[in-house]
Design a protein that fits this description.
This protein is α+β, with helices and mostly antiparallel strands and about 50 residues long. The protein is built from 1 helix and 2 strands, in the order H-E-E. It has one helix at about 5-15; strands at about 20-25, 35-40. The longest helix is centred in the N-terminal third of the chain and has 11 residues, at about 5-15.
Length: about 50
């Protein structure tokens, strides 16, 4: 059964919004792929914007 293909894009957006990163680690001997991610324990302070 196939999906809509949105799952990974949604996960990546959420992880990146929390200051993390996501990457794929291909495994030749295993069918499919392994996705890894990191999310910092504490959020980065907001960047100052120009004109504030």
């Amino acid at each position: 059964m196939g999906g809509s293909g949105l799952g990974l894009a949604i996960c990546a957006a959420i992880i990146e919004l929390h200051g993390g990163r996501i990457w794929v680690r291909n495994r030749v001997a295993v069918r499919g792929a392994v996705f890894c991610f990191t999310v910092p324990r504490e959020p980065e302070p907001p960047m100052p914007s120009d004109g504030d």
